[in-house]
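Q&A log
Question type: sequence-to-structure
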Amino acid sequence: MRFTAGIDIGSTYTKALIRRDDGEIVGRHMHPTGFKLAEAATQTYHRALDEAGLEPGDVSYIVATGFGRHQDRLSDVQVTDLTAAARGAAALFPNTRTILDVGGQTMKASRLSEGWKVKSFRLNDKCAAGTGAFLEKTAHYMGYNTEEIGPLVDTSKESIPISGVCAVFAESEVINHLSQGVPPADIMHGAIVSLVGRSVQLMKRVRMEPEYTLIGGILRFRRMIEVIRDQLDAEVNVPRGDLVQFTAALGAAILGHRRLEKRAGDTAEATA
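Response status: OK
Response body:
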C-alpha cells in the first residue's frame, strides 16, 4: 500500500491531503497560509499525517501546488494549480469540461480537453471585486465574519444590486445601501450576484462547455451555488463537504501516484 500527498498553498488557506493508492483519502487538513508559506505548508502537512495515522516516511511522493508552491520544502515536484484542479475535478466528476475556481484572492475559469488537460483558461486576480475577498470585505464591513456569510445570506428576501466594477466603488455602494436601511442579508446577496456575474463572464471567455464543476472556498456558500446555477441555466457539479476546498490538493496527490507509476514503469523497462 502506497501513499501520496498533495499540498495546495493558496493565498488564504493551505490545504494538505493524503491519498492511498486505491483512491481512499486517509487524511486532510487546512490552515490559514499567513505570510510564512513554507511553515504553513509543513504544519498543515504534518496535521494531515496525524489524521491519517502515518509517519513522514510512509508517504512515497509529495506534490505541491497553489500560488506558494515554490516555497514548499517538502515536495518532490510542483505543478500549477490549474493542472492540479483539473485532475482533482476530473477524479470527482469525470465528465467535467469547465471548471470555475473561486478563491480568496483569485478567480479562475478553465476548459478541459477530453483527456482532462487544460485547453484554455482565464484568471481574474487584478481586482478584489472579482474574488472571494470582495465577499469577505463586504461581510466584515457590516460586522460579520467570513463563516457567517452563508447563514446571513440564507435569510435574504431579495438581491440588492451592486454594480461597481471596482472593489472601492462597490464598497461605496454597500455604505450607501446601509445608510438607507437595507438589510445586510440583502446586501450580501447582491454582492454574491455581482461576483457570480463576473465569474460567468470569465467562463464565457474560455468558451465554457458542460459539465461545469465549481470549486474553491467561496463555493462552500450554498447561495453562491444557487446563483451560479441560475445564471448558467444549467446543473453544476460541486464536491461534497469540504472537498470543494481540497480539490486541487486531491489532484496533486493523484498526480503523485501517476509519477510513481511512471517511475515504476521506467524502472521495469530499464531492467527488461
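Response note: Residues 200 and 232 are 7 Å apart (CA to CA).
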